[in-house]
Design goal:
By secondary structure, the protein is mostly helical. It contains four helices and four strands. Strands 1-2 form a two-stranded antiparallel ribbon. It has a two-stranded antiparallel sheet with strand order 3-4. The longest helix has 18 residues. The chain is elongated and about 95 Å long. The N and C termini lie far apart (76 Å).
Length: 128
C-alpha cells in the first residue's frame, strides 16, 4: 500500500466545499419542439407537455360535460360515470329507433360492439 493523501474528503473539507459559491452554470439550451407544451386547455390558460396531463387537468379542474344535445350534465374526476351516462343516452336512442350502433347526432358509423360504441361516444363527446 502506498502512502499519500487520502482520496476521500474529510468532514471539514466537505463543510468548506458547501460554503463555496457555485460556479456559474452553463447557459440554458432552447427547448426543442418535443419539450414545448403543445396541449392547451380551452377553458383556462394552462398548457401541458402530454395530452394525458391535459385530460387529467380537465377532469379534475373543469369536469367533463356531457355534450349530448339537451343534456349538459357535468362529471368530475372519474371517466367511468361519463361513459355509462353516454351509453345510457345511446341505449335510449337504440330503443327509440329500433337499431343498434352509434346514435351520436350526425354519426353514421354502424359499430355494434358495446366497447367500441363507448369509445366512439367518448370521442364524440371530447370533440365538442
Amino acid at each position: 500500500m502506498t502512502e499519500g493523501k487520502n482520496p476521500y474528503p474529510t468532514f471539514e473539507e466537505k463543510a468548506r466545499a458547501k460554503d463555496r459559491t457555485p460556479l456559474p452554470s452553463e447557459p440554458r439550451k432552447k427547448p426543442s419542439a418535443s419539450t414545448v407544451a403543445s396541449h392547451a386547455c380551452k377553458q383556462c390558460d394552462k398548457t401541458f407537455h402530454a395530452r394525458g396531463n391535459l385530460l387529467q387537468h380537465r377532469r379534475y379542474v373543469h369536469g367533463i360535460k356531457c355534450n349530448w344535445p339537451g343534456c349538459g350534465k357535468v362529471f368530475f374526476r372519474d371517466v367511468g360515470p361519463v361513459a355509462r351516462h353516454l351509453l345510457e343516452h345511446n341505449i335510449k336512442m337504440e330503443q327509440e329507433l329500433g337499431r343498434k350502433g352509434c346514435h351520436w347526432p350526425g354519426c353514421t358509423d354502424p359499430k355494434h360492439q358495446r366497447g367500441s360504441i363507448v369509445k366512439k361516444l367518448q370521442d364524440h363527446n371530447d370533440e365538442e
